[in-house]
């Protein structure tokens, strides 16, 4: 099992980024998938989860209305569209196999998102 995130970077407040998570080594379409994040000096935080076919998504209150999670099962890829970014969104973002959680048996190494002027 391998999960590889990409798309992070530095952006100004109010900006947007699109994160991707490329999955391999398992049947991606069989699993609920999740994005989580960890800010410097803080514990991990669940961000969003999506059902196997992408028909249902759940979001943390802190990102609801600004972030959109999606998946493309044909490409074995997970996405997180982040709009209206705030400095408090600064964190290492990682994807994990499984539901609403921050501790996964399988997770990626993460991609850094920094929101700053």
- Could you tell me the mean pLDDT? 97
The gross shape turns out to be: globular
Helix fraction, binned, reads under 10%
Low-confidence blocks of residues: none
**Annotation, overall tally of beta strands:** 10
Taking the alpha carbons of the first and last residues, their distance comes to: 37 Å
Number of helical stretches of at least 4 residues: 0
Task: Give a quick rundown of the structure.
The protein has 117 residues and is mainly β.
Explain how this protein is built.
The chain is mostly beta strands and 117 residues long. The chain is 0% helix and 48% strand. It is built from no helices and ten strands. The strands form two sheets. The protein has a six-stranded mixed β-sheet, with no helix packed on it. Strands 1-3-8-7 form a four-stranded antiparallel β-sheet, with no helix packed on it. It is globular, with a radius of gyration of 13 Å. The model has no long low-confidence stretch (mean pLDDT 97).
């Amino acid at each position: 099992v391998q999960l590889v995130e990409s798309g992070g970077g530095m952006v100004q407040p109010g900006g947007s980024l699109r994160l991707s998570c490329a999955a391999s080594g398992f049947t991606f379409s069989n699993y609920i998938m999740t994005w989580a994040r960890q800010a410097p000096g803080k514990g991990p935080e669940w961000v969003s989860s999506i059902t196997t076919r992408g028909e249902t998504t759940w979001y943390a209150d802190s990102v609801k209305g600004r972030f959109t999670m999606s998946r493309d099962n044909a490409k074995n890829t997970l996405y997180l569209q982040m709009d209206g970014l705030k400095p408090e969104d600064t964190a290492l973002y990682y994807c994990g196999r499984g539901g609403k959680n921050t501790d996964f048996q399988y997770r990626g190494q993460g991609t850094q998102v920094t929101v700053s002027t």
